């Protein structure tokens, strides 16, 4: 059940991305409507996949690379649907669906074997720590996509299609700001809950493990973004570039650190009991 | 002096310091931290190793330049917090300056002919408690909502300052040691009069053979009286008087005795990976590796974690030279010249990390302030409304009110 629904999810997300691309390239609005319908269907299958994984593993699917990645993709999709429904601009999907697919295919490349939790992960803090990370990263992904739209709109200033389907700068900037604000609050919860958990498990709430360090770096990047935005009036192109860079840092924190650097979060190799 | 203080408390300086710390953290995440020089020699060229060692990039978070950055940021945040609070309080309680607010136009405003209508209007849009100020022929009706929002960024700054200050304090007063041993052994906790008795240690396995939990049953004894006795497992440390005992590792140990002829030279517990040195005799025995279920087909591997066929890989050094290396079955007598030694009674030992870290409550309080500050900052936007009447002319000004009007 989990595997079939996950494959269906990947297919639906891929078709959605194609639909959004056709909409954007050939400027046919009906494809954007197909895109959102496909994403919603994808989320439904994705939810079934996560639910059946939870039932099979007897815990929430938050404990290894595959589980976090698939939950992360689900988080972006849900955040996207929420923002799309609230602000109703069709072009958003063209920019968010590639991010969803990137994370979903990263999940597909990981081992899907259900393994019981190692002792260090047996903590009630895992639910708060990882679930807030999913929504935090999801919100930052939406901010990145919206900021990318800002840059596209800025580049194609005189294109009537862009003018029609990509909202004006003020709206884009405002959505990006709100998404980053939400993401930063969540990221703070992620860091604080992780620190409490680390203290309970290893005796030090902060030990400059690469994952912790990169969480700190991303937190500071977004903190600087908000500072310059609120105090220096960086509300336009500069803020959009900053938001895109911030999400690149997020991707590195998640994928790069796990694959390139070793530390206490490298659960593939057991460093601690 | 004023110029210096102004610079030290400025946002520009704060942002520069944050950027500086981010760059150092980036380097710290790329260069493995706290390893020996030989470790880096295996990974990098000689030139890079020299650079790492010279710049102390191998322990960047304890380097003087990282510390300077952290202290400077603390000073910046502290000064910023001190100097800003006065103006924030003034903003909260002063009459809003309508000249910097957004001016609204609406036909409905013309209906606000008298005080009662204005009162109803203010109440309707959420400004039940508003003030009236009259001066120089103008009358201002003004109200504020979400005033706490003005404090958001200040609370975040204070929180970050507390986290840095208490974390630094914790780092520089940090005490860390370890206690370890096989069941029924005891050890004095370094620098204290607390005796740590290890009563039991067990590893719980699941049906698939994976480890479910490591559990040490330990007792703390002070002045011959039990002060605490409990099971310590991962995510469940024992805490006493600021010390926290964490289950961090495990390994194998055996009883060991060495004879020279009929004379017993030494009898002790021997831990895997350690060596027993008999200086007087010039002999060193190294317990290189333990195989609980040794593969008898000649491969140096253990077939399981169960004690089915325990073997020990040992090395003998004599006067600084390696003279023997072999595997021996647990309980087997090994002879080398006039010496006889034996590894017996193999069992698991537990390794507990003992830390005492100060400032945790302060850092936690700072973290809570950061979180509260962020929520205040983003979700309690201060709203201001000013209705200005000058003779028969009425104008409405506001801040963050565009949705409501």
From TrEMBL, chain A:
<feature type="transmembrane region" description="Helical">
    <location>
        <begin position="177"/>
        <end position="198"/>
    </location>
</feature>
<protein>
    <submittedName>
        <fullName>Cytochrome c-type biogenesis protein CcsB</fullName>
    </submittedName>
</protein>
<feature type="transmembrane region" description="Helical">
    <location>
        <begin position="68"/>
        <end position="84"/>
    </location>
</feature>
<keyword id="KW-0472">Membrane</keyword>
<keyword id="KW-0201">Cytochrome c-type biogenesis</keyword>
<keyword id="KW-1133">Transmembrane helix</keyword>
<dbReference type="InterPro" id="IPR002541">
    <property type="entry name" value="Cyt_c_assembly"/>
</dbReference>
<dbReference type="InterPro" id="IPR045062">
    <property type="entry name" value="Cyt_c_biogenesis_CcsA/CcmC"/>
</dbReference>
<dbReference type="GO" id="GO:0005886">
    <property type="term" value="C:plasma membrane"/>
</dbReference>
<dbReference type="GO" id="GO:0020037">
    <property type="term" value="F:heme binding"/>
</dbReference>
<feature type="transmembrane region" description="Helical">
    <location>
        <begin position="213"/>
        <end position="228"/>
    </location>
</feature>
<dbReference type="Pfam" id="PF01578">
    <property type="entry name" value="Cytochrom_C_asm"/>
</dbReference>
<keyword id="KW-0812">Transmembrane</keyword>
<dbReference type="InterPro" id="IPR017562">
    <property type="entry name" value="Cyt_c_biogenesis_CcsA"/>
</dbReference>
<feature type="transmembrane region" description="Helical">
    <location>
        <begin position="134"/>
        <end position="156"/>
    </location>
</feature>
<feature type="transmembrane region" description="Helical">
    <location>
        <begin position="91"/>
        <end position="109"/>
    </location>
</feature>
<feature type="transmembrane region" description="Helical">
    <location>
        <begin position="240"/>
        <end position="257"/>
    </location>
</feature>
<feature type="domain" description="Cytochrome c assembly protein">
    <location>
        <begin position="62"/>
        <end position="265"/>
    </location>
</feature>
<feature type="transmembrane region" description="Helical">
    <location>
        <begin position="6"/>
        <end position="24"/>
    </location>
</feature>
<dbReference type="GO" id="GO:0017004">
    <property type="term" value="P:cytochrome complex assembly"/>
</dbReference>
<feature type="transmembrane region" description="Helical">
    <location>
        <begin position="31"/>
        <end position="48"/>
    </location>
</feature>
From TrEMBL, chain B:
<dbReference type="InterPro" id="IPR007816">
    <property type="entry name" value="ResB-like_domain"/>
</dbReference>
<keyword id="KW-0201">Cytochrome c-type biogenesis</keyword>
<protein>
    <submittedName>
        <fullName>Cytochrome c biogenesis protein</fullName>
    </submittedName>
</protein>
<feature type="domain" description="ResB-like">
    <location>
        <begin position="11"/>
        <end position="393"/>
    </location>
</feature>
<dbReference type="GO" id="GO:0016020">
    <property type="term" value="C:membrane"/>
</dbReference>
<keyword id="KW-0472">Membrane</keyword>
<dbReference type="GO" id="GO:0017004">
    <property type="term" value="P:cytochrome complex assembly"/>
</dbReference>
<feature type="transmembrane region" description="Helical">
    <location>
        <begin position="148"/>
        <end position="169"/>
    </location>
</feature>
<keyword id="KW-0812">Transmembrane</keyword>
<keyword id="KW-1133">Transmembrane helix</keyword>
<feature type="transmembrane region" description="Helical">
    <location>
        <begin position="60"/>
        <end position="83"/>
    </location>
</feature>
<dbReference type="InterPro" id="IPR023494">
    <property type="entry name" value="Cyt_c_bgen_Ccs1/CcsB/ResB"/>
</dbReference>
<feature type="transmembrane region" description="Helical">
    <location>
        <begin position="361"/>
        <end position="380"/>
    </location>
</feature>
<dbReference type="Pfam" id="PF05140">
    <property type="entry name" value="ResB"/>
</dbReference>
């Amino acid at each position: 059940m989990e595997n079939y629904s996950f494959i269906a999810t990947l297919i639906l997300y891929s078709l959605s991305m194609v639909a959004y691309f056709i909409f954007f390239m050939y400027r046919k609005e009906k494809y954007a409507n197909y895109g959102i319908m496909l994403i919603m269907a994808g989320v439904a299958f994705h939810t079934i996949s996560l639910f059946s994984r939870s039932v099979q593993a007897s815990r929430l699917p938050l404990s290894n690379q595959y589980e976090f990645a698939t939950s992360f993709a689900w988080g972006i999709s849900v955040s996207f649907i929420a923002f799309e429904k609230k602000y109703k601009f069709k072009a958003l999907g063209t920019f968010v669906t590639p991010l969803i697919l990137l994370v979903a295919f990263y999940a597909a490349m990981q081992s899907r074997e259900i393994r019981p939790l190692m002792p260090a992960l047996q903590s009630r803090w895992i639910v708060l720590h990882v679930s807030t990370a999913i929504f935090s990263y999801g919100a930052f992904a939406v901010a990145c996509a919206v900021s990318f739209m800002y840059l596209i709109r800025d580049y194609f200033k005189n294109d009537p299609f862009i003018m029609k389907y990509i909202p004006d700068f003020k709206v884009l900037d405002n959505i990006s700001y709100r998404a980053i604000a939400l993401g930063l609050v969540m990221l703070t919860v992620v860091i604080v809950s992780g620190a409490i958990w680390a203290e309970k498990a290893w005796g030090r709430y902060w030990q400059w493990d690469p994952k912790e360090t990169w969480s700190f770096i991303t937190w500071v990047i977004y903190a600087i973004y908000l500072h310059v935005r609120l105090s220096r009036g960086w509300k336009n192109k500069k803020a959009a570039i900053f938001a895109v860079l911030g999400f690149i840092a997020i991707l590195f924190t998640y994928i790069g650190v796990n694959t390139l650097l070793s530390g206490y979060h490298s659960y593939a190799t057991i460093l601690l009991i | 002096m004023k110029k210096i203080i102004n610079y030290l408390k400025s946002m520009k300086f704060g942002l520069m310091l944050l950027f500086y710390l981010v760059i150092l953290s980036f380097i710290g995440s790329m260069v493995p931290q706290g390893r020996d020089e030989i470790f880096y020699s295996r990974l990098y060229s000689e030139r890079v190793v020299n650079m790492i060692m010279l710049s102390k990039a191998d322990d960047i978070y304890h380097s003087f330049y990282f510390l300077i950055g952290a202290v400077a940021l603390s000073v910046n945040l502290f000064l910023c917090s001190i100097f800003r609070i006065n103006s924030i309080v003034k903003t909260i309680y002063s009459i809003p300056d309508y000249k910097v607010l957004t001016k609204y136009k609406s036909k409905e405003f013309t209906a606000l002919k008298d005080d009662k209508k204005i009162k109803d209007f203010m109440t309707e849009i959420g400004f039940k408690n508003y003030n009236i100020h009259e001066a120089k022929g103008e009358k201002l009706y003004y109200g504020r909502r979400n005033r706490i929002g003005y404090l958001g960024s200040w609370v975040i700054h204070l929180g970050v300052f507390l986290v840095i200050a208490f974390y630094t304090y914790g780092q520089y007063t940090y005490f860390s040691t370890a206690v370890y041993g096989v069941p029924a052994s005891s050890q004095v906790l370094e620098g204290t009069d607390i005796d740590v008795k290890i009563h039991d240690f067990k590893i719980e396995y699941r049906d698939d053979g994976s480890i479910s939990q490591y559990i040490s049953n330990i007792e703390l004894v002070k002045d011959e009286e039990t002060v605490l006795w409990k099971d310590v497992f991962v995510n469940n440390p024992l805490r006493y008087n600021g010390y926290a005992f964490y289950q961090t590792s495990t390994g194998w140990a055996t009883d060991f005795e060495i004879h020279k002829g009929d004379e017993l030279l030494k009898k002790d517990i021997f831990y895997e990976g350690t060596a027993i040195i008999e200086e007087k005799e010039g002999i060193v025995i190294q317990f290189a590796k333990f195989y609980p279920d040794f593969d008898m087909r000649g491969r140096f591997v253990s077939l399981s974690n169960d004690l089915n066929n325990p073997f020990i890989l040992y090395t003998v050094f004599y006067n600084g030279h390696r003279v023997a290396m072999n595997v021996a079955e647990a309980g087997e007598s090994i002879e080398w010249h006039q010496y006889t030694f034996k590894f017996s009674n193999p069992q698991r030992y537990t390794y507990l990390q003992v830390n005492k870290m100060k400032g945790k409550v302060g850092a936690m309080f700072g973290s809570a302030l950061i979180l509260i500050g962020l929520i205040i900052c983003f979700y309690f936007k201060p709203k201001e409304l000013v209705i200005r009447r000058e003779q028969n002319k009425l104008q409405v000004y506001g801040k963050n009110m565009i949705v409501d009007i």
